[in-house]
Design a protein that fits this description.
Number of domains: 2
Number of helices: 7
Radius of gyration: 22 Å
Strand order of the largest sheet: 6-7-8-13-10-11
Structural class: alpha/beta
Distance between the termini: 54 Å
Number of strands: 13
Order of helices and strands: HEHHEHEHEHEHEEEEEEEE
Largest sheet: 6 strands, antiparallel
Length: 305
């Protein structure tokens, strides 16, 4: 909380400068101020018992302090002539109104954010960030971390939905929290095997991101009846059919000839399906060719590009 005691602020500024000076030459660094730092809310008694407290402490509200840290890092890098490193802010806990938990993130000076559940009562329910992520409007880079809305479950379809909505999916991998030892089933946590599809799907989305001209692609959900699409119209399209029944779907394409590639989300099988010629720029219908029904990804690439 602000204002800080002068001695505390001096110590924090010195610490931040030291960290930035030490790693300023590393291009692969992201800064995060704090993880789930308090947003000024209260904690229910059941949760207090879980963390071993009988009385609720004064959690405070870290919002303005986090904003201050973000600005301080940015200004110090600029002052020193260092290359910029993205600074992020993640979901706060607890907050007075969970439905507004992400407002302070989008309103912050952060470059990237990790939103939390804002549509259900607990993260153990099926939040929209797991089942139907909102499209990224480009205001912030979003690192979609299951820790903040679905810490106990994730699957391959979650990774693909997040990617096709313009987010960067990362997994709170409780399945390996005990290292090489299998998790104790009595703990209530997921087994190692249960999260393997999500792990592999994150790798699959990364592979597609590298193979496509991703820098030129935009969220274009309106081009597909599935509402999940990335596109550089006329050149490159990536469409997700999330249905377990593998229903046929349409994609609005510009006139051209496209190479057709299919990818099964569940089996991870790839199918090269020749070409499709589009002459009038109308809706074109597609259906996944796999023997087993399930979600599928369609990649269309302009022939010769």
């Amino acid at each position: 909380m602000l204002p800080l005691d002068a001695r505390v602020q001096g110590s924090q500024e010195a610490y931040i400068r030291k960290v930035v000076d030490t790693i300023q030459n590393l291009p692969n660094v992201l800064y995060e101020v704090a993880n789930e730092s308090s947003g000024g809310g209260s904690v229910d008694p059941e949760f207090l018992g879980i963390i071993g407290l009988s009385e609720p402490p004064d959690w405070g509200d870290s919002t303005q302090w986090q904003y201050w840290v973000i600005d301080f890092v940015k200004h110090y890098e600029e002052e020193m002539g260092y290359d910029r490193h993205p600074v992020g802010m993640t979901m706060q806990y607890p907050v007075p109104d969970q439905s507004k938990v992400n407002d302070v993130l989008f309103d912050s000076p952060a470059d990237w954010i990790s939103p939390g559940f804002d549509d259900v009562e607990t993260p153990m329910q099926d939040s929209r960030w797991l089942t139907d992520p909102p499209p990224n409007d480009g205001a912030k880079v979003i690192i979609s971390d299951t820790d903040h809305y679905s810490p106990m479950k994730s699957d391959a379809l979650w990774a693909w939905k997040s990617f096709l909505r313009g987010h960067n999916p990362i997994l709170c991998d409780l399945g390996i929290v005990t290292g090489v030892n299998p998790p104790d089933p009595s703990s209530g946590g997921p087994s190692f095997a249960s999260l393997e599809p999500a792990r592999r799907a994150m790798g699959d989305t990364l592979r597609f991101a590298r193979e496509m001209g991703l820098i030129a692609m935009e969220l274009r959900g309106e081009l597909s009846s599935t509402a999940y699409a990335l596109a550089n119209p006329g050149d490159d399209y990536l469409v997700l059919q999330p249905s377990e029944t593998a229903d046929a779907f349409t994609v609005t394409l510009e006139s051209s000839t496209y190479l057709v590639q299919w990818f099964s989300v569940n089996s991870r099988e790839t199918n090269e399906a020749g070409t499709v010629k589009v002459e009038d720029g109308s809706n074109t219908t597609f259906a996944a060719p796999f023997a087993e029904a399930g979600p599928a990804v369609l990649h269309l690439k302009r022939e010769g590009s």
